[in-house]
Amino acid sequence: MTVSTIGSNATQTPSEQQRSSGASGVSPVSISQAQAQKSGRSAAQDTVHISSQAVDLQGLEAHISQLPDVDKGRVTELRNQIANGQYQVNVERLAEKILGFESDL
Which terminus of the chain has fewer Cβ atoms in its 10 Å neighbourhood, N or C? Predict the structure, then answer.
């Protein structure tokens, strides 16, 4: 099976390679090719083309999945401000955000 990518971000991490090759570490394509060779038939060649946009999206998805769910530094900063009585709510900004949320519904 030939896999070609269109774009510059055509990299795959070892863990992604393992996931794409299945649980046994052997891709389904290589199994079917081996079976075809045993029976004396030639295996058909499949071709996959991945657009540069899809490759970019895969890269972004991988990067995002590595980011923490919570910014612990920001949480600690806010917690300290609240505990010290230094945190102030900007009521105008809060009202704008609420109105914006309501208008999106």
Answer: C
| Amino acid at residue number 63 | H
Domain boundaries, the chain: 1-67, 69-105
Residues 40, 63: Cα–Cα separation, whole Å: 44
Taking the CA atoms of 70, 71, 77 and 82 in sequence, report the sign of the dihedral they define: negative
Spatial neighbors of 31 by CB under 8 A, at least 6 apart, are none
Q: Look-up: residue for tokens 């990299």?
A: 11
57: Cβ contacts below 8 Å, ≥ 6 apart: none
State the average pLDDT for the chain: 77
pLDDT in tens, 50-64: 899 999 999 999 999
